């Protein structure tokens, strides 16, 4: 039997993420402690140190923070993209009704939070931040749901992964259209050309990964310089990697197997260390009661839960989609709550939305608090639901 069995790779992905999730949460705590200690300035200076090189035609001289957020995170998006593609081709998402649900749910999870934020912040200086509560942090959401183990149907994990990546891709499109000051179309057209070459390799059934990876690096560079968030290049590359019917010859599954451990145990911990170094200040706490803070809190918590649940319900009732295997509506509410973990992309959009440091700091703090509530609340909710259902099954 092939060591790259489809179900085995899926279990490895989430089991590794479950263990990596604990490490991820530890890194969050460590980063927060550093940011609120005497080491804060030194750590910030370290993240601002530049690595790389620049020539007349190539610019690869970036800060450590940018290499983590735009470089390493593209690898994470590549891994998630590979997982989603495989599930669309051969797994839980291969049925059109199952595949359409996370996309429609993600749409609700973007529209309702943005609307709630806009209504609360209408006619204020912070109204431009309506995109902040639209995004779901894939890494933290998957880490939380992975720690639930067998307490929930495995199909929910796939659903959340698909929902989160559709959500973040939607957020990236929003950034490109509404929060990008300038798009460099020359780089964008060159990136499109490289993507077409990758698709051609797939069409010609080229299986060697060394034909794809170098072009993927070029794609990352071009997307990054186009003004669009570079992490989308990871998803684009994933869609071009071939997936053969025989697992031991599938480049997609081989690459997924190679990336799972380094992503969960190196890339994501580094990301957490670099992005949760938030120094707490009194104005941040006060900011929770402002339209900005309330818009983020209610947008991510209530907006995400309502948007995902309502849009999923309508999609199923209209027979456009069907619930994930063995999942119930109570599970969908819990997943909606978990999707309120905005964190990475929400902080990124907040930094693009405002120029005033006070607004940025208030937004970061509100995102951190809300994401913690959503993560803990979603975990407890789904855990309690599972135990309640198990008890009811035993008594019947």
What does this structure look like?
The protein has 396 residues and is mostly helical. Helix content is 72%, strand content 3%. It is built from 15 helices and two strands. It has a two-stranded antiparallel ribbon with strand order 1-2. α14 packs antiparallel against α15.
Rg from alpha-carbon coordinates: 21 Å
In N-to-C order, the SSE pattern is: HHEEHHHHHHHHHHHHH
Range of helix content: over 70%
- How many DSSP E strands? 2
Query: Span from first to last CA?
Result: 40 Å
What's the story with the biggest beta sheet? Answer: 2 strands, antiparallel
List the helices and strands and how they pair.
Layout: H1 6-35, H2 40-48, E1 50-54, E2 59-63, H3 64-90, H4 96-121, H5 138-147, H6 154-179, H7 185-203, H8 213-226, H9 232-240, H10 251-275, H11 282-286, H12 291-317, H13 329-338, H14 343-353, H15 357-395
Antiparallel strand pairs: 1-2
Summarize the structure.
The chain is mainly α and 396 residues long. It is built from 15 helices and two strands.
Structure characteristics:
396 residues, globular
């Amino acid at each position: 039997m092939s060591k790259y069995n489809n179900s085995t790779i899926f279990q490895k992905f989430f089991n590794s993420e479950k263990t990596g999730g604990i490490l991820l949460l530890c890194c969050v705590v460590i980063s927060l402690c550093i940011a609120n200690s005497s080491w804060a300035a030194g750590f910030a200076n370290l993240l601002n140190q530049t690595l790389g090189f620049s020539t007349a035609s190539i610019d690869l001289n970036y800060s450590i923070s940018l290499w983590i957020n735009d470089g390493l995170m593209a690898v994470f998006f590549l891994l998630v993209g590979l997982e989603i593609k495989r599930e669309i081709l051969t797994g839980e998402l291969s049925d059109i009704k199952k595949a359409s649900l996370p996309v429609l749910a993600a749409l609700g999870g973007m529209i309702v939070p943005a609307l709630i934020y806009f209504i609360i912040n209408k006619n204020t200086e912070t109204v431009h931040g309506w995109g902040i509560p639209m995004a779901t942090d894939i890494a933290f959401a998957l880490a939380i749901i992975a720690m639930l183990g067998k307490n929930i149907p495995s199909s929910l994990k796939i659903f959340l992964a698909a929902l989160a990546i559709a959500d973040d891709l939607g957020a990236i499109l929003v950034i490109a259209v509404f929060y990008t000051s300038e798009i460099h179309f020359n780089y964008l057209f060159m990136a499109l050309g490289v993507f077409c070459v990758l698709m051609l390799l797939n069409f010609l059934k080229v299986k060697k990964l060394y034909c794809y990876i170098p072009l993927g690096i070029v794609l990352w560079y071009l997307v990054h310089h186009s003004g669009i968030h570079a992490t989308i290049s990871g998803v684009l590359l994933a869609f071009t990697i071939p997936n053969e019917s025989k697992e031991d010859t599938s480049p997609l599954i081989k690459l997924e197997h190679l990336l799972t451990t380094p992503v969960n145990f190196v890339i994501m911990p580094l990301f957490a260390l670099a992005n949760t170094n938030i120094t707490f200040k009194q104005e941040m706490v006060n900011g929770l009661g402002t339209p900005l803070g309330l818009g983020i809190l209610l947008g991510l918590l209530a907006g995400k839960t309502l948007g995902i649940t309502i849009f999923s319900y309508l999609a199923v009732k209209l027979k456009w989609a069907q619930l994930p295997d063995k999942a119930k509506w109570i599970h969908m509410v819990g997943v909606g709550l978990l999707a309120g973990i905005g964190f990475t992309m929400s902080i990124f959009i907040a930094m693009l939305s405002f120029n005033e440091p006070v607004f940025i700091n208030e937004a970061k703090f509100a995102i951190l608090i809300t994401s913690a509530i959503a993560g803990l609340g979603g975990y407890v909710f789904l855990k309690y639901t599972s135990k309640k259902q198990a008890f009811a099954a035993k008594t019947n």
